[in-house]
């Protein structure tokens, strides 16, 4: 680990005149902590920095993008807004925290969890990014937990970005989807669609091997990495690429009536005729 900061002697704050302000070292720690490894390693291109979503950190948005691009956007946004606490969570984490808090309340037991309530999870970030469709199996509590989490932020006028994967949109077949969640999103979130910029996930390895740096300096956003760009140009993007998600084997549930969703969610309800799904429409 790094040696003790010479500016603040490790206290994390520095005195400027009458005021105590956060030391640069604390800022970097906070940024890194809010950035999961997969975001730190993301390949940020100039095109990402030019996206209108970069300036939407105070708005609620449903961002429909490829996961590769979303990671890049989140990284760029965190670096561009260093004094803003930006966190990435998921419908799965929200469900886990929600269910965990309920069962703990019943048991009166308080150990082993980082977040004791939905409020602990949802309240602190200035901007919360929620990865939708991270839940890999059906769960009764999930749509309610997601709705509560979204509404918690809305009630306090704190911005949230809901991320819906271009390759696996949050829609009727999603485990945290409900008509009610869909309605909340439809009436409170602007939909922002990002055309694919980075090649699909299967090219991750090539991208990383051309030498991507971690989150070391804010300057990195001013100097787009030229080599990966060149490498990417030479790789033609295939028409159709199956998303590579080896860890996720989603089984249709017993009440599956057929392939309503190619992601295998079993559905007991018929899809409603008015387009109530996200991500596929135009
Ligand atoms: Zn310091």
List keywords for this structure.
Rossmann fold; alpha/beta; five-stranded parallel beta sheet; binds zinc ion; 282 residues; 10 helices; single chain; two-stranded antiparallel ribbon
Short synopsis of the structure:
Helices cover 33% and strands 12% of the residues.
- Strand percent estimate: 5-15%
Using the coordinates above, name the CATH class of the domain at 36-209 and 219-233.
Alpha Beta
Query: Mean pLDDT across all residues, rounded?
Result: 76
Total number of β-strand segments? 7
* Biggest pleated sheet: 5 strands, parallel
Rg estimate, integer Å = 20 Å
Structural class by sheet pairing and helices: alpha/beta
Q: Which residues form runs of ≥5 with pLDDT under 50?
A: 206-282
Bound molecules: zinc ion
What percent of residues adopt helix (DSSP H or I)?
25-40%
Could you characterize the architecture of this molecule?
This protein has a domain at 36-209 and 219-233: Rossmann fold, CATH 3.40.50.300. The model is unreliable at 206-282 (pLDDT under 50). Helix 5 (91-107) crosses helix 7 (142-155) and helix 7 packs parallel to helix 8. The protein is built from ten helices and seven strands. The relative contact order is 0.15. It is 33% helix and 12% strand. Helix 7 (142-155) links the parallel strand 5 (127-131) and strand 6. The chain is globular.
């Amino acid at each position: 680990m790094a040696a003790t900061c010479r500016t603040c002697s490790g206290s994390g704050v520095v005195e400027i005149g009458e005021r105590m302000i956060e030391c640069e070292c604390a800022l970097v720690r906070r940024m890194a902590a809010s950035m999961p490894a997969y975001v730190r390693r993301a390949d940020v291109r100039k095109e990402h920095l030019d996206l209108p979503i970069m300036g939407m950190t105070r708005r609620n948005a449903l961002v429909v993008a490829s996961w590769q691009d979303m990671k890049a956007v989140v990284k760029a946004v965190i670096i561009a807004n260093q004094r803003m606490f930006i966190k990435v969570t998921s419908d799965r984490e929200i469900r886990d925290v929600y269910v965990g808090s309920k069962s703990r309340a019943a048991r009166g037991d308080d150990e082993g969890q980082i977040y004791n309530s939905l409020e602990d999870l949802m309240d602190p970030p200035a901007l919360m990014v929620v990865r939708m469709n991270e839940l890999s199996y059906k769960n009764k509590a999930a749509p309610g937990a997601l709705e509560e989490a979204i509404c918690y932020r809305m009630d306090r006028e704190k911005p949230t970005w809901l991320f819906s994967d271009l390759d696996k949109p949050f829609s009727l077949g999603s485990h945290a989807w409900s008509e009610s969640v869909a309605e909340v999103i439809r009436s409170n979130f602007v939909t922002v669609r990002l055309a694919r910029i980075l090649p699909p996930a299967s090219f991750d390895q090539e991208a990383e091997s051309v030498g991507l740096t971690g989150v070391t300096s804010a300057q990195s956003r001013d100097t787009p990495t030229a080599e990966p760009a060149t490498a990417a140009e030479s790789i033609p993007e295939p028409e159709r690429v199956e998303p590579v998600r080896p860890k996720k084997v989603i089984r249709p549930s017993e009440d599956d009536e057929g392939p309503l969703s190619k992601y295998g969610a079993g559905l007991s309800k018929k899809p409603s005729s008015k387009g109530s799904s996200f991500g596929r429409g135009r």
